[in-house]
Description:
The longest helix is centred in the N-terminal third of the chain and has 18 residues, at about 1-20. The protein has a single domain, classed as Alpha/Beta hydrolase fold, catalytic domain (Rossmann fold), CATH 3.40.50. It is an alpha/beta fold. The chain is built from seven helices and five strands; from the N terminus they run H-H-H-E-E-E-H-E-H-H-E-H. A five-stranded mixed β-sheet has the order 1-2-4-3-5. Helix content is about 40%, strand content about 20%.
Amino acid sequence: xxxxxxxxxxxxxxxxxxxxxxxxxxxxxxxxxxxxxxxxxxxxxxxxxxxxxxxxxxxxxxxxxxxxxxxxxxxxxxxxxxxxxxxxxxxxxxxxxxxxxxxxxxxxxxxxxxxxxxxxxxxxxxxxxxxxxxxxxxxxxxxxxxxxxxxxxxxxxxxx
Length: 160
């Protein structure tokens, strides 16, 4: 499992590096700056199950990045069996430090890959339908995660 986390981290790093040298040159925010520069919407439900919730981190700086204004969609790991978005927040910190918008998603546990990937689709469709409330750039989305969350992304889920 540790190897999977390392590989996913490397792939995500390479992908972000290839997207823009400008983002990598942005000075990282301190924990205090992140607290000041972000508004956080905790636990909006994207479907009926109590596990189908997300946290949305809205950056005051994201729009200033122009074509490099990415929205990061993150799914936690845990073998589709355990964990929670709140237990894995350390994995979204690098994106927050750069001032990107981040959506940290929970999915239904102990129900398998098909349910988890369906939840990703449901979450993306929710964001699209309710983007007037969040004003995310949904034209530049990076879906990422680790372990089960990374595999969920690999399944080729497309919203709508």
